[in-house]
Write a structure and sequence with these properties.
This protein is α+β, with helices and mostly antiparallel strands. Helices cover about 45% and strands about 15% of the residues. It has 2 helices and 3 strands. The protein has a 3-stranded antiparallel beta sheet with strand order 1-2-3, with no helix packed on it. A hairpin with a 4-residue loop joins strand 2 and strand 3.
């Protein structure tokens, strides 16, 4: 093992990581803990429109309240 061999290996590894990072699409990169926390917080707040239920006779739409975990119309 020589210092030049270690240096060459380090430079090669760094170059490979940079090229891989540049060429990998954003949607194919692994999720971070921060991404997962944002997703959890987003689903735990507010209401979500239920798209596969038609509106009621008075025109109100169905929503799922994520905090109370109930179906509401508004």
């Amino acid at each position: 093992m020589s210092w030049s061999g270690v240096g060459n290996a380090a430079v090669g590894s760094l170059a490979t990581n940079i090229v891989t990072n540049i060429l990998t699409k954003e949607e194919n990169k692994p999720a971070t803990k921060g991404d997962i926390k944002k997703l959890i917080n987003k689903t735990h707040q507010g209401v979500i429109l239920i798209k596969n239920l038609p509106p009621r006779y008075d025109g109100t739409r169905a929503y799922f309240d994520t905090a109370q975990q109930i179906l509401i119309y508004k």
